Amino acid sequence: MNSGSKIANCKIKEELEQVVIQLDGFPAIVFQFPDQQAPTLQTYDFAMWAILPIALRLGLTVRFHQPMSKKGLDSANNIAKVWQRWLPNFFSDVKLEASTTDPHKDLSAKALTFFSGGIDSTYSAHKIYNEHGRDSDSLTIHGMDYKFDDDSRFESLKEQTQTFRESIFGQSHFVKTNLYNVYSLIGCNPKGSHVTHIFAMFSCGSLFETYATYRIAADYRLDQQLEVHPWGSNTATNRLMRSGNGQLVTLDDDITRAEKANYLANSGLDLSSLSICVDHNIRPHNCGVCSKCIRTKAMFYATTGNIPTIFLDRDLSQNWHDSIHLKRKNERVFLSDIIETAIANGCYESFPGMKEAHLKLRAEQVKAARNPMYGTKPKQLFKELLPLRWRITFKRFQVRRGLADTL
């Protein structure tokens, strides 16, 4: 598709406790600051990073009416080219246009670290604290793992992680955004992968312009990133992402999540701050029976021979691997990590159900290698093929009937 076939204007409205992006023809994207006033901005790079997946999906030229930094604008246009090359059948050529200016704010001596309370971010934050002391503030985003309207459970997450954050970080920032809802409406994530999370995170981080370094924990070891590609947060594109003053830095892409779990289990750290569960009715507590909890229990067991008390259900049954969705390539990577860890630690033979899990993994790996569409659900294909105006109409119908979250 030719760049510039569709033109959309983008304006930003600043208020005391929120910032709003209005892109022609789309729902308003809000960024709210429940515990502080909205930052005062000199440049508006955050809006470019928020809008970029939408522009890529729809092949837009976006004209911003507020100034951007030259570094940020160049970075966003470069990242757009990378993703269009990687996924030419899903993303289209785009162009971001804006007047540019150089920010002149005094920079903080601290970094800004994205923190969710999971294993990756907890490991990286604790490790770098042990090495460099309290040299970072934190940013936790409401509207990603926790739905935009789920205030009570997000408040529980803040309480659960408060002691850890206060001991590791300087200041804790929180941003609430409906950006994920808009991405979902448009269908910005390709089948079997997740791309948009890095754009949502760096957009929220770029609202805080005084940091020279934005730190994000790697989701996977570098070789594993190749296995799960395309995946939004990856070392290759993360290192190209810049705002006016700041650079995104990926931490700890040299170890696996099982190795991180082992470190945390033996660190003496109170693990009660960890929030792993994907059950929206239980989190930030850990149910112990959802797919992610069971996978994480197996990970801890493979590394230490024990399951920590952070799970409401600590059992690990013979058929634990049945809950792992092996049609998903990222789940195959995590199961491979568990199996290799169990072998390395000499507990493969005694691990409940491990041999069966290993056989299932091999079978799924062969199927996936033969069929590039393996694991694709009809719903995913429907979202990708359905024209945008029909998706919006269907989403609004769901909202009216109470079947979906509000935007």
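[next item in queue]
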Amino acid sequence: MIEEEYTIAAAYRQNVKLHLHNGEVITGKAELSGDLHKAKIRTFDGVTWIPFGDIEKIQRLILLH
């Protein structure tokens, strides 16, 4: 489920908010990558790789005009 939602977000270049099992929240733009076990997020600080197993919940942030 997490991987599927992430793949959809990355395909549409959407911003996401990832809630991790340790309580941390990471917000950034989802990007496609060749690693099937990690999410690639472009944040303000740069690119971050997060293992899908560390993600508790994903929210796709969609801008409505």
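[queue empty]
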